[in-house]
Amino acid sequence: MSEERTNHRLMILGAGVMGVGIAALGLGSGLPVTLVDVDEARLEQARRRIRRELKLARLMGALPDGAAPGELTTTTAAKDGAAATAVIEAVTELAEVKAAALAEVSALVAPGTPVVSNTSSIPIDELAASVARPQEFLGTHFMNPPYLIPTVEVIRGRRTGDPAEAALVSLLTALGRTPLVVADSPGFVTSRVLHPMINDAIRTVREGTAPAETVDALFESGLGHRTGPLRTADLIGLDNLADSLRVLHERTGDPGCEPDQLLLDKVRAGHFGRKTGRGFYDYGGNPS
């Protein structure tokens, strides 16, 4: 294992889709990972999902050749990961939940440890009020699945210091990712542009202009997108998409960001996309 990798020990808060994906990326890159969640049953499920994702990532050639997998520790106590050299928070996309998790963990880790919120939309300066050392706090936006998409949006808040940014860039480099640094703003770049567009695509389906399959085909074969907006929504998670749109709507006032009723209906029915087996498409009832 390279010295670059051995210098990093990663703690991840949250064993949901993104927490599991980031953990799989870290482990597959040879880093030791402590995965923290309040629910032991969820951690057991996460261990199984991580094994599947690592197997898939290897089959797809998405991990470094010859890298011995890192050691995974799962726990319900954040203090068990206090020796980490970096923390990535990946809990649900609700500001109050993230703030509580960040407040706890930032008080546990040693000064100089970057604390990172993986968020698709919540401004970093807003969350910085909850951490012990705002100069060591910044954001990331990993795309799903993290082991397949090499680019990571890095969000620098007004109080983020240069050492914290350098430490995060070092970690992302060790993970084989390409960091692109942007300024802080609701939704940053990707979500501010993409999520309202997906919301518009959902609206066209609800209004009967075209079914989901046709909308996606037009974007894929007509505009050259790798996946259409509705398949992308299912991959993001419709619940996460709705939460992100609410953040954008509340903080920007853009009426185009108000979650469409069809999206809200699907979330209310528990149809969150690939992770539940059904969203705009049916995945056979089998969560991914």
From TrEMBL:
Q: Look up the domain of life of the source.
A: Bacteria
Residues reported to bind NAD(+): 14-19, 37, 93, 98, 120, 144, 275
Q: Which InterPro entries match?
A: 3-OHacyl-CoA_DH, 3-OHacyl-CoA_DH_NAD-bd, 3HC_DH_C, 6-PGluconate_DH-like_C_sf, 6PGD_dom2, NAD(P)-bd_dom_sf
Record keyword Ubl conjugation present: no
For the 3-hydroxyacyl-CoA dehydrogenase C-terminal domain, which residue ranges apply? 187-283
Where are the coiled-coil regions? none
Q: Which residues form the 3-hydroxyacyl-CoA dehydrogenase NAD binding domain?
A: 11-184
Pfam families per UniProt: 3HCDH (PF00725), 3HCDH_N (PF02737)
Q: Name one GO molecular function term.
A: NAD+ binding
Q: Where are the transmembrane segments?
A: 12-35
Q: In which pathway does it act?
A: Lipid metabolism; butanoate metabolism
Q: Name one GO biological process term.
A: fatty acid metabolic process
Give UniProt keywords alphabetically: Membrane, NAD, Oxidoreductase, Transmembrane, Transmembrane helix
Q: Where is this site: Important for catalytic activity?
A: 141
Q: Per the similarity annotation, which family is this?
A: Belongs to the 3-hydroxyacyl-CoA dehydrogenase family.
Q: What is this protein called?
A: Methoxymalonate biosynthesis protein
